[in-house]
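re: ur msg from earlier - yeah i can do the manganese (II) ion complex, just paste it... oh wait u already did. ok heres what im feeding in:
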Amino acid sequence: MNETNALQALAGALTSGSIVTVDLTHTLDPDFPVIVLPPEFGQCARFRVEEVSRYDERGPAWYWRNFTCSEHTGTHFDAPIHWISGKDLPDAAVDSIPADAFVRPVCVIDCSQESADDEDFLLTPEFIVAWEQTHGVIPEGSWVLMRTDWSKRSGAEYLNMRDDGAHTPGPTGDAVKLLVEERKIIGFGTETVGTDAGQATHLSPPYPAHYLLHGAGKYGLQCLANLDELPPTGAILVCPPLKIKNGSGSPLRVLALVDRSAA
Ligand code: MN
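and the outut:
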């Protein structure tokens, strides 16, 4: 099948509905939680919106608003320059990342039961290899998403903050090393507020997903939703961030194309 035919087949499948589009995005809303850092650090801003006009004296025929937020508010993309380990890499800001990174195959590792049993569940290399024994080796250049069903939580339950910080699942350093160095993934995504576990300051290295992914020029996605609607393999992720000059990240709409006719 040549490339034209592949796109024609895709177009037909999209039109017929055998390939469906799944929205993996939370609504940008002032109430959606953002990461909270220790008080000595600068803080991530929530989504805010102000009305400019709504068919009134400020603009009789039109409705529009101004909004502000952090580059890391809501469902969002992390670029390599987000972390110090990636600060000197080329093409490492959201406006300079090659666009092919934003349309890729995606693997979904289901950790939902383990995360329900243990809010500090850590994804290990052993867990990934066991997943591969069922679903095949993670293809080079894929996105890998860690399904925890954390997106079904809301409010304080979502950040799950305690006196000693947040308690949410994430990967170990060795798991990220396996994904980056051996499987050569393009990025890693989670349903939680960060790609790292809530207690990842205590891992080696601290915040291994941020440190190792971005140091290797890889990307992150967080605050994803609806990962329970995706198959373990075979879907295509579509995740272009806003083209913010020298941006460290960006809120974005994340979609997945899923073949419902596949077994
Ligand atoms: Mn982020």
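cool cool. The mean pLDDT is 96. ping me if u need the other ligands too
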